[in-house]
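Q: Structure for this?
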Amino acid sequence: MVEFTLDGARVSAPEGELLVHAAARHGTFIPTLCHDEKLDPYGGCRMCLVDLEGAPRPVPACAQRVREGMVVSTNGETGALRRTLTEMLLAEHLSPNPGGRPNELTDLAEELGAQAPFLLPDAAREPYEDRNRLMGYDPGACILCNRCVRYTQEVMQCSALVFEGRGAEARVVPTHGHSWLDTECELCGGCLSVCPTGAIHEQFLGGSPAGHERALRKTKTTCTFCGVGCQIDLNVDPETKRIVKVTSDPSYVSNEGNLCVKGRFAFNFVHHPDRLTRPLVRGDDGKLHPASWDEALSLAAAGMNGVKERHGAQSIGLLASARLTNEENYLLQKLARGVIGTNSIHSCEAT
Amino acid sequence: MTPGLDELPRERTRLLDNLGWVRRNVGPVTPERSDALADHMNIRRGEVAEVVSFYSYLGQPVDVVRVCTGPVCDCLGGRALLERHPGAVEVPCIGHCDLAPAMLRGDEVVPAVTYSTNHGPSIDLLGPDEPREPPSLEPDRIVAELEASGLVGYGGAGFATWRKWEAVRKAPGPRVVIVNADEGEPGTIKDRYVMELRPHLLVEGIEVAMAFAEAEEAYVYLREEYATARERLGAALAARGLPVTIVTGAGSYVCGEETAMLESMEGRRGMPRLRPPFPAEAGYLGRPTLINNVETLAHIPAILRLGGAACPRTRLWSVSGAVARPGCYEASVDVTARQLIDDYAGGATEEIGAVVPGGAASGIIPPAALDAPLTREGLAPWGAGPGSAGVQVFPASYPVLRLVRETMRFFAEESCQKCTPCRIGTRALEHVLHELEHDRPAMPGWQLEEWLVAMEKGSICGLGQGAPVPLRGAMRHWPELFAPLLQTR
């Protein structure tokens, strides 16, 4: 642990911790736009500049590591600097709410009372259309913080988005301006989860989800798609009572806010009319009829016992769904080996 | 798909070289060629695409015609020249301001180079250029001589050379020496003169630096537009059999910023790094790196031979614009603009309106300052500095607002886009100046001041930090031009 001075108070933090995090633990919130805990420090947006005694100019708290005896001030001149930087970003922020996601820039602008004196004549970027049906991108909301690009490179280790060009022509775009579908992108949506302005946003067949994310009711649950157990928030429209999007928070332990394409986007089955919500048993008329669990399971057990009696246990194999947890897989192999008496068990996750 | 591509080295540090090879031997780097190289080098395609798009020239054919519209060329008819060459690419300063308006047809400089220079005691551009054994001194003695000589970085920052050298020796090896030959500061042509006329002198300086740093490898990061320099320096390095690699840029001003240069050499976009650490501690591939400007290194042989205190303190002045004999002249470090114009450059060709003393971010001084010594101290009262000693003389007929707007356009186009104040500030200042040319205030004066401060204090590198300097100079010396801004609340 080291001790340092933060706005006049003596505080302590583990040596090498990033100043922005150490300050937050001591109740001092330093705004950031380009910073993300999952990514290497970038120091581009400059929103988190603080005064550091002895440094020739303000330093970014997102890249500065705490050290013994340092004297930091977050509320001096850098406060005015923050408002000015916000004004600058607003001068090319043509599209503040493209997809209903939270916008940290306009929130900050409201808090600081910042307004752009003008819109830059070259603020408009080339519009972007993508034939994928899950993610939309409005370059008019992009602040070139590079978080999405760094996420693809540093977390996903893939080549989906690039920071292209220089000067007013610079933009963030899928590689070569192709569709996401023609890059290495797996449509995990991680880029949109780290986007501070909602420039990249969820988009489904019917367009962006209705309403702003803040008006949606979040219910924390576990993703049902596989055994990893990613923690997710189902975002429910309070009026229609339907799930309209899935988000995840970086503080969630098993997945740190990262999701895959299924976890983030494949929730439509929940409300689908064809979804099985109770067991069905095929009757003598050849059609499926609702049944109780006891009925259905007894029937399945009887059927399998019949096969075992007629053809032996080795004639039975079990294929486990990718959705099962480790514990469920364990139980299933007990059923296969101990009860049925076959070693033929496999999970469809093993391709 | 591309014959020869399979032979190219796969190290990430060779990416820029390889891209240059593709451009020269195959053709402009298209997305397909970029992907093919990425696959060959086992780098993600997107990361190569990012790099390609960062530079101005990789997507251009090798024989492209480039017309300079940097401030000096703009003043002397660059735009008219551009109109006469349909299909030509407009580029900011190409480092041939002595020939303004300058044009490159492929590697060929139009009009052809004519050297106008003088004998000088340190670099002596007209002196005989031959391979020579470099002076051999103990490292401590070298640092002491450099300190006594008062030598500072002549790329523009003016940092004391001995401090840099001392810091590198303190960091544990292996160490690397890099020569910054990416001379991109508008109005500055001196490093090109050194490399074209005294390449062996530069090589001598490199040898001293490598021995001092006990470096086994060295690099020269050379701007793409300097084909003759590339050839002559390459021959001089070969004559001494040195393990020095010339890395050719691809058209990016900010790559002259030393940490952006390191990024560029490591095969990434040339976006400046956060400091600390400084390159002397952790530079190229994380190794302690000694980075010096061409001219700075070229002064070192004379300093070590004559002794730091005895060596005459001169530097190379690039003089361009409205003068009879634009060129590069070796003169005292405290020379005045009037002496350079009258005694070296043959006098002014028109009534002088403004002088930019040392490159785009050095300030703008009025005719009243012509007798001020062009030193840090001499120019401070005029809100300017000597920078890279690229003295640009603008006639009274060239509007100051246009000069500043052209300069700001240059900064805006060259901004790497990493940090907000530079990324948006430079474009905003160009807009403010454009509006002022039409007597329209784009923002109130007090707010403009806040934006300038944000750029100066908040930008990562010298590009954004220095971009307000010419505007401040103009506001100070020609306040009437900025009156509309002050009338707004």
